[in-house]
Automatic annotation (TrEMBL):
Keywords: Leucine-rich repeat, Repeat
Protein name (record): Protein tilB
InterPro entries: LRR_dom_sf
Organism: Pelecanus crispus (Dalmatian pelican)
Transmembrane segments: none
Length: 223
């Protein structure tokens, strides 16, 4: 059965009767809580209140088991609007369970640090439009092949060489401050010799030469 919508849009799928949808079958599930009852009333959506009910700790644990995140191979958790600490913690709890995910989208979630997360099978990660400032803040991804970090706040290329021992082939750093470094492409390819594509452009012959590091001395003569 397909999941119903509208009056059920603030409920988790395991609260809805007569469906057999599993967590790993959802294209873009929401992990944040819905509006409060008071806010729903002022929105004119009080018809959704009748579907809500109090659940015990045992029922909550059973729901977590039903989520079945461990079997997800592809998952889109973008645009989650994580405005509360509880939502962020719940979001990271789910990420920690993604032991088999291979493709993961976390676009526009205001994320700042996922260094405590390990994604052992992840081959493709999209974290565009977040607040990462360093490569050290990314999850541990020993199998990563395609990484997209566009529109973050990464200032320098420090820490990029940590991906040298991964099979990383494609990297996107568009609209990050580090993109404006002198000899940017050569520095990236120097740190990642096995990289094949940067910002959607294949590796060019001029990208293979080592960065030209020269020191200029100026002499001032005082008469």
């Amino acid at each position: 059965f397909k999941l119903p919508s509208d009056s059920f849009k603030y409920l988790s799928w395991c609260d809805i009767e007569e469906h057999d949808v599993r967590g790993n079958q959802l294209h873009c599930p929401r992990v944040r809580e819905g509006p409060s009852e008071e806010e729903l009333f002022f929105r004119g959506e009080e018809h959704t209140l009748k579907k809500r009910k109090q659940v015990t700790d045992t029922e909550k644990w059973q729901k977590k088991l039903q989520e079945n995140w461990e079997n997800c191979a592809e998952l889109n958790l973008s645009f989650q609007d994580l405005g509360d600490l509880h939502q962020v913690e719940n979001f990271k709890r789910i990420l920690q369970r993604l032991i088999r995910v291979e493709k993961l989208w976390l676009v526009d979630n205001s994320l700042t640090d996922l260094s405590a997360i390990r994604l052992p099978r992840c081959r493709e990660l999209n974290v565009n439009k977040n607040y990462f400032t360093s490569f050290k803040q990314l999850p541990k991804m020993p199998q990563i092949q395609h990484l997209s970090l566009a529109e973050n706040n990464i200032m320098t290329l420090s820490g990029l060489s940590d991906f040298r021992h991964t099979p990383l082939e494609s990297l996107i750093l568009k609209r990050n401050p580090c993109e404006f470094q002198e000899r940017y492409r050569q520095l990236v390819f120097s740190s990642l010799p096995n990289l094949k594509m940067l910002d959607g452009i294949p590796k060019l012959p001029e990208d293979c030469s080592p960065p030209d590091i020269r020191f200029f001395f100026r002499m001032c003569t005082i008469l």
